[in-house]
Each structure stands twice: as C-alpha cells, then as structure tokens.
C-alpha cells in the first residue's frame, strides 16, 4: 500500500524559510519520479517542482525558481522541499506526489506578518 506522509510546514513571516518532508513507503521510492504541488484558497492545484528518479534532474514553476529546492534521499525514502525567501503568495496547502498518481495528505504553509 502506497503511503506518503508529510511533515513540516506551518506559519512563517515573509522572507523566512521552511522545509517540507514526505516519507514514502509501500513502493520502491528510488524508482519513482516525485513532485510537489500546492493549492491556495480558491485556486486550482499547481505544480511546484519535480525531481527525477536519481535526483539529477529538477524542474520548478517560474514563481518559485531560485527560492525553492526539491531534493530526495533514496536511502531514506524521503522527498524534501526547501523553501527560502517565502512570500505571502506562497501560502497554500502543499502536497507531495509519487508518479503516477499517489498523493500525500497535504500540509499547510502560511506566510504572513
């Protein structure tokens, strides 16, 4: 049974940093491409970042390039999203996703002064 358990998130002031984690089980994590998505209130879910099986290839939404870093530790079956210089518009529920369509439970990120 595929499980993706997220941790991290919370409230932070603009300019601050947070790190999200996504612990995977029930499948061969090292063989799956992984992604982070987010959904802001009243908006559709959007892709934030993706990472290849080995971690050597990453891609980001234009809105987070240079601020967010997606990474993975295949030995620990864990996906990460390091978020720096956070802005109020980054406020959303963040989800990890394993290819093709397995989702974490979501974690709230609030950026506000």
Task: Write out key terms for the chains shown.
single chain; seven-stranded mixed sheet; four-stranded antiparallel sheet; 113 residues; mainly beta; globular
Describe the protein.
The chain has no helices and eleven strands. The protein is globular, with a radius of gyration of 13 Å. The strands form two sheets. Strands 2, 4, 5, 6, 9, 10 and 11 form a seven-stranded mixed sheet that branches. The chain has a four-stranded antiparallel sheet with strand order 1-3-8-7, with no helix packed on it. It has strands spanning 3-7, 10-12, 18-25, 34-39, 46-51, 58-60, 68-73, 78-83, 92-98, 102-103, 107-111. A hairpin with a 6-residue loop joins strand 4 (34-39) and strand 5 (46-51). With 113 residues, the protein is mostly beta strands.
In short, what is this structure?
The protein is mainly beta.
The number of helical segments is: 0
Q: What is the oligomeric state here? A: single chain
The CA-CA distance between the termini, in Å, is 40 Å
Order of helices and strands: EEEEEEEEEEE
Computed Rg: 13 Å
Q: Main sheet?
A: 7 strands, mixed
| Model regions low in confidence, pLDDT < 50 over at least 5 residues | none
- Mean pLDDT over the residues: 97
Shape: globular
- Kindly name the structural category: mainly beta
In total, the number of strands is 11
């Amino acid at each position: 049974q595929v499980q993706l358990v997220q941790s991290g998130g919370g409230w932070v002031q603009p300019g601050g940093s947070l790190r999200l984690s996504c612990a995977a089980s029930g499948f061969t994590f090292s063989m799956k491409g992984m992604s982070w998505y987010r959904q802001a209130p009243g908006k559709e879910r959007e892709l934030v970042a993706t990472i290849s099986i080995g971690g050597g290839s990453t891609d980001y939404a234009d809105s987070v390039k240079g601020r967010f870093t997606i990474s993975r530790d295949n030995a620990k079956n864990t996906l990460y999203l390091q978020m720096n210089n956070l802005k109020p518009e980054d406020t959303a529920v963040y989800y990890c996703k394993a290819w093709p369509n397995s989702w974490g439970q979501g974690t709230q990120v609030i950026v506000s002064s």
